[in-house]
Specification:
Length: 234
């Protein structure tokens, strides 16, 4: 990501393959050093998990929303990743250890991180240029983007003579539904297993039913998703 989507795209578009390999090696070493320093600064595995959760929560919205809204660009995503990381470090190290403030509840830190990160990437999105029209149209054709968020691009492209294969329908919402059902099924099965092992019959039964229900729904939703894929029979 750093080499191809940042260095080559914004800093050195004319860079050779040899140069990109070298940059990749340097970035790998630097990331290992940073990860090692961060690990030394942490005292529990929970702190590492909280940082990862904070970063994921801050960037999660944009990584999903980019499939629904044409205006999001590379600068939006880079901003979200940087800001969410800095916010996670602030709440983990600066807020209490440096400023001496009372530690905020985890849910409040999470919500604050999402709000700050979202505000940051939205500002950057509106003050930077969107991707060029050729790239946007190519993206629409490749992933079958649709919905109101991509309607202006599709309508403009059609007016200029571009053709789109609309026979398959818009698959992204169905794909996201399958992803959510898969998460519920997997985590439901994991928690159910743990509750059965510890003899918590009530919770174990509930999570088992939830996992089975999500799995059955996922099978049905997955068949519908495959039916929209070209050349694939449900």
């Amino acid at each position: 990501y750093i080499v191809h989507d940042f260095y080559q795209r914004f800093m050195r578009p004319e860079s050779s393959e040899k140069e990109l390999v070298l940059v990749g090696r340097i970035c790998t070493v630097l990331l290992m050093v940073i990860a090692g320093a961060l690990a030394l600064a942490l005292s529990t595995a929970l702190q590492n998990f909280e940082i990862m959760l904070q970063i994921g929560a801050g960037t999660g919205l944009i990584f999903i929303l980019r499939w629904f809204w044409w205006r999001i660009n590379a600068y939006s995503e880079i901003t979200a990743m940087i800001v969410s990381f800095l916010v996670a470090l602030y709440f983990q190290f600066v807020h209490v250890q440096v400023l001496g403030l009372t530690a905020l509840p985890s849910w409040l830190r999470l919500c604050s991180g999402i709000a700050i990160t979202t505000a940051a990437w939205l500002i950057v999105t509106f003050v930077t240029r969107p991707a060029n029209k050729e790239t946007l149209v190519s993206f629409c054709k490749l992933v079958k983007a649709g919905g109101p968020g991509w309607k202006p691009i599709i309508d403009e492209a059609k007016a200029e003579g571009e053709t789109f294969d609309d026979g398959e329908g818009w698959r992204i919402p169905q794909g996201i539904l399958c992803m959510l059902l898969g998460c519920v099924a997997v985590y439901g099965a994991l928690f159910a297993t743990g509750y059965w092992i510890y003899g918590r019959v009530g919770l174990a039964t509930f999570m088992t039913v939830l996992a089975i229900g999500a799995t059955l729904w996922l099978i049905k939703a997955w068949r519908l998703l495959l039916a929209k894929e070209p050349g694939i029979e449900a």
